[in-house]
Amino acid sequence: VKASSRGLGAKGDAKPGVDFKKEEPTMFWRSLMLGAALLGGANAFAPPARRARGTSLNGVAASTVNGVTVEGTLVPDQNFVLVRLREAEEESEGGLFLPGTAREKPRDGEVVAAGPGKRDPETGTLLETEVKPGDKIVYGEYDGTRIVVDGVDYQVLEDKNILLIYEGDKPTITNARLLEDRIAVKLNGAIDETTRGVLIADSAQKDYVAQDGEVMAMGPGLRTSMGDRIPMDIKVGEFARFRDFVGADIDMDGENFRVVRMSEIVAKWQ
């Protein structure tokens, strides 16, 4: 995954994330810290136990969150997940700096804790979180909230913002598992002439942005309020055209892919 290396971060930190000088603390991470403090207070009445600091199946032991002292375990709520970030790649394997042409540059990391899920407001059905601790995931550049736990960068985001899960060192089209109604489209390249034989200028080709391609992988579909899957109205091997300015660009296996939602597909063909 070719991730963004934009310098949005906490003071003194050049890693991607939220600028805490300009952004007010959100209610979400305030509640996370409160939960950690409450858990720490509750532990005061329990028998002392020896436990090394680090991650557990349901949270991360923390002494500071964004510079604020807390006691206890940081636990994601509802369908939120806590992701340990991987360092952003700034150079290609050939040593060239990656171009910043993608509209959205996905980031990746490993899920270290996940909430139990979110209840549908109408039916009360619990829609379980679709990832688990240990999963390697890719998510959109602007999704989630960055927090720093004991000096380590994490991202807190909803499972619906996760593009795909993968195995191994990096995602490939064969090891990637897309979530919800997301579709991986292998993009068509720029054409150098029209069907009537008119040559297209190089400058126009450079500005070309692919909006169609072959469907190579897709998720199981969205869930209804009762937790049932809504069938996908497209198949692997079909070709699709999607709306302008949607999706996230991902390089896998040396090919360019755009991950879009089913609702963003405007036409399909064999």
Task: Tell me about this structure.
It comes from Phaeomonas parva. Pfam families: Cpn10. GO terms for molecular function: ATP binding; metal ion binding; protein folding chaperone; protein-folding chaperone binding; unfolded protein binding. With 270 residues, the chain is mainly beta. The protein has two domains: 1-171, 10 Kd Chaperonin, Protein Cpn10, Chain O (Roll), CATH 2.30.33; 172-270, GroES chaperonin (10 Kd Chaperonin, Protein Cpn10, Chain O, Roll), CATH 2.30.33. It has helices at 27-43, 202-206; strands spanning 60-65, 68-74, 80-85, 107-114, 117-119, 126-128, 136-139, 145-149, 152-158, 162-166, 177-178, 182-187, 212-218, 239-242, 248-252, 255-261, 265-269. The chain has a seven-stranded antiparallel sheet, with no helix packed on it. Strand 8 (145-149) and strand 9 form a beta hairpin. The radius of gyration is 21 Å and the shape is globular. The model is unreliable at 1-27 and 33-56 (pLDDT under 50).
SSE arrangement, N to C: HEEEEEEEEEEEEHEEEEE
CATH architecture of the largest domain: Roll
Q: How many independent structural domains?
A: 2
Rg result: 21 Å
Total count of helical runs of at least 4 residues: 2
| CATH topological fold name of the largest domain | 10 Kd Chaperonin, Protein Cpn10, Chain O
β-strand number: 17
Secondary-structure content class? mainly beta
CATH class designation of the largest domain = Mainly Beta
What share of the residues lie within helices? under 10%
Give the overall silhouette.
globular
Percent of residues in beta strands? Answer: 25-35%
Largest pleated sheet: 7 strands, antiparallel
Q: Quick check: average pLDDT? A: 77
Distance between the termini: 29 Å
CATH superfamily of the largest domain: GroES chaperonin
Q: Low-confidence runs (pLDDT<50, min 5 residues)? A: 1-27, 33-56
